[in-house]
Specification:
mainly alpha, transmembrane helix, membrane
Length: 311
């Protein structure tokens, strides 16, 4: 398996697992926990998992002094993105918030184009527009109800922070750091934000039932440890923009669990939106091979020579 295929697979896994946030977070909210407490435990439980993986692979925890500041910045970006997203769940349905979060690929593409002169191809623009059109179909209410402004602003802040993180991870200065170590320190520095917000434990809400601790552990493993590991490695294989666009699978995951777990109805409009998003992701993965496939398809139907009319 070549690096490009690995990158696309890791990007898809990262997006799908990150879309599991509402699945594990909403029962915790229902039990009375607040976003700060949920995220504190989410990060706290993920850090030892990554630490054990680091030691199992025989890697050390040493950092160069010059890498410290960038990793602290990335940690706070990731933590703020998580906090803004989880707080938005209090203002709108989690599925809608997860869907709106998908504006971050546009932000990534624009940042890479404006700041780092990455060429914004027509195919990339069309795929983004196609995916956004599909997302619009997923959660455009039939009654025309407007979304909560505070909730929308929180999601936009979350998307921008995540976009800057994705771009930052792809910078040459951090590419030499092993993926596991980078993710470990990003989460380690990120948890400090929640430690401050829960007043160093004095305002921390503790889960009362054993199954809620299962939710917290699942949050730490799937949308945190696995998702951030796969995101970081996918960026190193295929770059920031394709990894971000593969994030289309995040709202698909939210829709899947909404239908199967929370009893949401799968309407024709919802199905059409899903197809549009899958098509956009497929086109991005195919990349430059699309033209090759179209040429091969065209060769199946060669032109027949035109017969000259007898004068």
């Amino acid at each position: 398996m070549n690096a490009k295929v690995k990158g696309y697979m890791l990007g898809a896994i990262a997006a799908a697992t990150y879309g599991m946030n509402p699945l594990f977070a909403l029962p915790l909210y229902k039990a009375g926990m607040d976003p700060d407490s949920v995220l504190f435990f989410r990060y706290l439980f993920a850090i030892p998992v990554l630490g054990i993986m680091l030691k199992a692979r025989g890697r050390n925890f040493k950092l160069c002094r010059r890498d410290l500041v960038p990793l602290v910045v990335l940690g706070f970006l990731v933590a703020f993105s998580s906090l803004a997203l989880f707080q938005s769940y209090n203002y709108m349905e989690a599925g809608i918030a997860s869907t709106l979060l998908f504006v971050y690929p546009i932000m990534v593409a624009l940042i890479m184009s404006l700041l780092f002169k990455e060429k914004l191809t027509l195919q990339t623009v069309l795929c983004i527009m196609l995916a956004l059109g599909g997302i619009g179909l997923l959660y455009q209410t039939g009654s025309g109800a407007t979304l909560n402004t505070v909730g929308v602003l929180l999601v936009m802040g979350s998307a921008l922070s995540y976009a800057i993180y994705i771009v930052g991870v792809n910078r040459p200065r951090l590419k030499d750091i092993a993926t596991l170590k980078l993710t470990f320190y990003v989460l380690l520095f990120g948890v400090s934000l929640f430690l401050i917000r829960v007043d160093f434990g004095r305002s921390l809400h503790i889960a009362n039932d054993w199954y809620l601790w299962g939710n917290l552990i699942a949050l730490a493993i799937f949308p945190t440890a696995i998702s951030f590991l796969c995101t970081t490695q996918a960026i190193q294989y295929i770059g920031s923009t394709p990894t971000a666009i593969l994030g289309a699978l995040e709202p698909l995951t939210a829709v899947f669990f909404g239908v199967t777990i929370f009893g949401e109805v799968l309407t024709p409009r919802l199905g059409c939106g899903i197809v549009m998003i899958i098509l956009a992701v497929t086109l991005i993965i195919a990349g430059s091979n699309v033209t090759t496939y179209l040429i091969r398809f065209r060769k199946l139907f060669p032109r027949l020579p035109l017969k000259k009319k007898n004068g």
